[in-house]
């Protein structure tokens, strides 16, 4: 560090560029009095607006169906009746709405696509990831896909149990950040049933090509985890310890 | 013991102190989620009416979280100072609110501030539930808590800041760039505090050495902190790293602290280690704690007497009892970080920020606030501005600031460095005195004492930019 401190400033038309080049943080924005200049302020607002819209845009099943024309797709809702309730009551987002009926399939795998905190992520990435994942699971019987409104990750436990599936994979919109409003997360749970805890799941996050994981990268990891889970009859921390290493950022 | 209150001709019953406290709490989503909130506006006022008539001393005899099963309760009651409590020992909660407001209006800081060792978190929380936002501001600004290590914090007319230069990969140059950006905008007098991207001892030591190098080279009267887990900081101490402050997130129940992986003994051990380094120049406060309403609930560690859910604001105040036991330099609530299931919108976040500041100060803490929000809460910059300015008026010890409101590692929004300048200029507040003198030495202040808008070829900017160039 001492060396870096002692070095002279590089010759440059814009010495502030030194700061900007060193980090993605919003440094050297300049000032208007004691506040941000108008242009910097509007840049921030645009990023926040994209994140806000990603949270509040309703899940549009037709957008997903159009990208998966040959796949049987069922729709369910959680017990959270609207977005405001969903955001305040995560417990309701983990339960199926009263009266929900799903066929008992006995399939190896259930796949749930949930809006989560970014329906936009589902619109943009769910079909691509589902397609890539199913290609990698030739020996698996897969229940009809389930598209879930106002869903939290653990809603997959209720869906997987109702379908009688041995495992459930939940694709869900992640909480938008200022620079990533369309990130999809994938959660794998072996033996789905309500009451499963987070340490019994495996997660691959930040599926968001071209900036985050590609569909192929994510599908490779999830398929490998599913194979290991089937062998072990369990998922979560126990699998993570003995199974293949997750890619960076898979959390 | 069932207590009853009547509002609008309807009588409401509150079977336990736990329920009375919860139902008296101003509305927030976390208490609804926990199932302990008032079920109507009238029930809430009925609970507040009953609470107002409750003797303050009740909280010494009747617990919200049990003495035998929770070490936070034991800490509170075993260290209670009856002499400090004596001036208000005969008052009800409502009378105590009135007395505080009278002292505040008269500018009697001593009478308010000397109560701290005699007050329990539950007393303070109960009082806050009867207060409006302006009450919380009025009393907060007359509650004096002064601490120091290499800068003095909490003096009248001062507003300090934590410079938070987080980076997604802890890249040394990236962190340094954000530090320079903050220093050039007059931030960092409370601490230069980094949340590390990973909790490894090696990474923590590297970051500690980096910030120490910047502080030493430029003679900056402030302190550094890497907000790693306390056990990681203990490892860094063993390796001889330059640890100014021991950091830890704490909560208001023993199970919640267990969820954080901390015990009171562990905190005492780490504090002793940092104290032994003798790195202070103007004081010897060597700990830093963060808290936030909802942390106990999110860990399913929010239950009190009889297994009943305790409201999140009371539990938050109990976390302050943990913090004050270790003579902190700074404490802050991270008020909007945890999400809309605990504090739904701008109104709830603003209220909670003022409550936390008031309760912390009254319990004797050098209280700051991370004025912040996430993208799924009904909160925006305007709400943050309102809370920031109210906290400035309330005499808040310090605010947290990041480059351009955007924390690129933790993915949430806090205040910008320039927001701290706005709060100071609007409210006539100044940085910590030692840091202000340093800013002047670096030629970063104009004749009016305001932080200059610099061109890059200004000598101070050149000197600091050199630190960020590779």
Automatic annotation (TrEMBL), chain A:
Pathway listed: Amine and polyamine degradation; ethanolamine degradation
Q: How is the cofactor bound?
A: Binds between the large and small subunits.
Q: What Gene3D superfamilies does the entry give?
A: Ethanolamine ammonia-lyase light chain (EutC), Ethanolamine ammonia-lyase light chain (EutC), N-terminal domain
Keywords, alphabetical: Bacterial microcompartment, Cobalamin, Cobalt, Lyase
Q: Which cofactor does it need?
A: adenosylcob(III)alamin
Name a GO CC annotation attached to this entry: ethanolamine ammonia-lyase complex
Q: In terms of one coarse class, where is the protein primarily found?
A: other
Catalytic function, reaction form? ethanolamine = acetaldehyde + NH4(+)
Stated EC number for the protein is: 4.3.1.7
Location relative to the cell: Bacterial microcompartment
Binding of adenosylcob(III)alamin: at which residues? 153, 174, 203
Pfam families tied to this protein: EutC
The GO molecular function terms of this record are:
cobalamin binding; ethanolamine ammonia-lyase activity
Name the Gene Ontology biological process terms: amino acid metabolic process; ethanolamine catabolic process
Described purpose of this protein according to its UniProt entry: Catalyzes the deamination of various vicinal amino-alcohols to oxo compounds. Allows this organism to utilize ethanolamine as the sole source of nitrogen and carbon in the presence of external vitamin B12.
As for family, the record states: Belongs to the EutC family.
Q: How does it assemble?
A: The basic unit is a heterodimer which dimerizes to form tetramers. The heterotetramers trimerize; 6 large subunits form a core ring with 6 small subunits projecting outwards.
Supply the name of the protein. Answer: Ethanolamine ammonia-lyase small subunit
- Give the organism the record lists: Geodermatophilus siccatus
Gene of origin? eutC
TrEMBL record, chain B:
Major place of residence? other
The record's cofactor note says: Binds between the large and small subunits.
Q: Please give an example of a GO cellular component term from this record.
A: ethanolamine degradation polyhedral organelle
Q: Establish whether keyword Glycoprotein is in the entry.
A: no
Instruction: Indicate which residues the UniProt annotation says bind adenosylcob(III)alamin.
Output: 196, 248, 298, 409
- Give cofactor(s), names only: adenosylcob(III)alamin
Checking InterPro entries in the record gives: Aldolase_TIM, EutB, EutB_dom_2_sf, EutB_N_sf
**Coiled-coil intervals in this record?**
none
Report the EC number(s), separated by commas if there are several: 4.3.1.7
Q: State the protein's purpose.
A: Catalyzes the deamination of various vicinal amino-alcohols to oxo compounds. Allows this organism to utilize ethanolamine as the sole source of nitrogen and carbon in the presence of vitamin B12.
Q: Which NCBIfam families match?
A: PRK15067.1
HAMAP family listed in its UniProt record = EutB (MF_00861)
Q: Would you tell me the protein name for this molecule?
A: Ethanolamine ammonia-lyase large subunit
Which organism is this entry from? Geodermatophilus siccatus
């Amino acid at each position: 560090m001492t060396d870096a401190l002692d070095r002279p400033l590089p010759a440059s038309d814009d010495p502030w560029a030194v700061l900007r080049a060193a980090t993605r943080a919003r440094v050297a924005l300049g000032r208007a009095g004691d506040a941000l200049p108008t242009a910097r302020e509007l840049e921030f607002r645009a990023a926040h607006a994209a994140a806000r819209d990603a949270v509040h845009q309703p899940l549009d099943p037709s957008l997903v169906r159009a990208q998966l024309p040959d796949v049987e797709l069922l729709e369910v809702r959680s017990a959270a009746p609207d977005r405001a309730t969903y955001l305040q009551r995560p417990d309701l987002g983990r339960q199926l709405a009263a009266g929900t009926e799903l066929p008992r399939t006995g399939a190896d795998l259930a796949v749930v696509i949930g809006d989560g905190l970014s329906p936009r992520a589902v619109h943009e990435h769910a079909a691509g990831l589902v397609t890539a994942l199913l290609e990698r699971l030739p020996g698996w019987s897969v229940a009809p896909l389930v598209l879930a409104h106002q869903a939290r990750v653990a809603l997959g436990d209720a869906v997987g149990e109702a379908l009688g599936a041995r495992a459930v994979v939940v694709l869900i919109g992640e909480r938008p950040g200022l620079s990533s409003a369309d990130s999809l997360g994938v959660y794998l749970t072996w033996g789905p049933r309500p009451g499963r805890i987070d340490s019994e799941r495996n997660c691959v996050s930040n599926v968001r090509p071209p900036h985050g994981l590609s569909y192929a990268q994510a599908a490779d990891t999830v398929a490998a985890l599913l194979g290991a889970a089937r062998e072990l009859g369990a998922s979560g921390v126990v699998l993570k310890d003995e199974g293949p290493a997750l890619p960076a950022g898979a959390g | 013991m069932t207590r009853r209150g009547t509002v609008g001709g309807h009588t409401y019953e509150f079977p336990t102190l736990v329920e009375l406290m919860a139902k008296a709490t101003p509305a927030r989503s976390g208490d609804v989620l926990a199932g302990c909130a008032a079920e109507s506006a009238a029930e809430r006022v009925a609970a507040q009416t009953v609470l107002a008539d409750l003797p303050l001393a009740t909280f010494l005899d009747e617990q919200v979280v049990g003495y035998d099963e929770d070490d936070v309760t034991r800490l509170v009651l075993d260290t209670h100072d009856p002499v400090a409590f004596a001036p208000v020992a005969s008052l009800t909660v409502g009378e105590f609110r009135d007395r505080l407001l009278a002292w505040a209006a008269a500018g009697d800081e001593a009478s308010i501030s000397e109560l701290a060792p005699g007050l329990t978190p539950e007393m303070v929380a109960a009082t806050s539930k009867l207060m409006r936002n302006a009450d919380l501001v009025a009393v907060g600004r007359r509650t004096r808590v002064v601490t120091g290590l290499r800068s003095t914090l909490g003096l009248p007319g001062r507003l300090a800041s934590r410079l938070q230069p987080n980076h997604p990969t802890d890249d040394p140059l990236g962190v340094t760039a954000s530090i320079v950006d903050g220093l050039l905008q007059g931030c960092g007098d409370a601490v230069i505090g980094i949340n590390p991207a990973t909790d490894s001892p090696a990474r923590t030591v590297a970051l500690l050495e980096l910030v120490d190098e910047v502080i030493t080279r430029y003679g900056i009267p402030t302190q550094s902190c890497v907000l790693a887990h306390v056990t990681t900081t203990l490892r860094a101490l063993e390796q001889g790293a330059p640890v100014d402050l021991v950091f830890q997130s704490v909560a208001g129940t023993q199970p919640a602290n267990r969820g954080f992986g901390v015990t009171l003994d562990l905190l005492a051990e780490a504090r002793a280690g940092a104290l032994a380094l003798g790195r202070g120049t103007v004081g010897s406060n060597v700990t830093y704690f963060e808290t936030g309403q909802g942390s106990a609930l999110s860990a399913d560690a929010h239950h009190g007497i009889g297994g009943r859910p305790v409201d999140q604001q009371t539990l938050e105040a109990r976390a302050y009892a943990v913090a004050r036991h270790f003579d902190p330099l700074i404490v802050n609530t991270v008020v909007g970080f945890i999400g809309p299931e605990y504090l739904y919108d701008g109104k709830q976040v603003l209220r909670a920020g003022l409550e936390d500041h008031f309760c912390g100060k009254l319990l004797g803490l050098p209280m700051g606030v991370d004025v912040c929000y996430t993208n799924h809460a009904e909160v925006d910059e305007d709400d943050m501005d309102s809370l920031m300015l109210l906290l400035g008026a309330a005499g808040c010890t310090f605010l947290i600031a990041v480059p351009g409101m955007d924390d690129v590692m933790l993915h949430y929004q806090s205040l910008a460095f320039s927001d701290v300048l706005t709060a100071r200029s609007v409210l006539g507040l100044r940085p910590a005195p030692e840091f202000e003198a340093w800013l002047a030495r670096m030629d970063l202040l104009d004749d009016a004492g305001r932080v200059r808008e610099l061109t890059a070829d200004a000598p101070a900017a050149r000197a600091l930019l050199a630190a960020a160039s590779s």
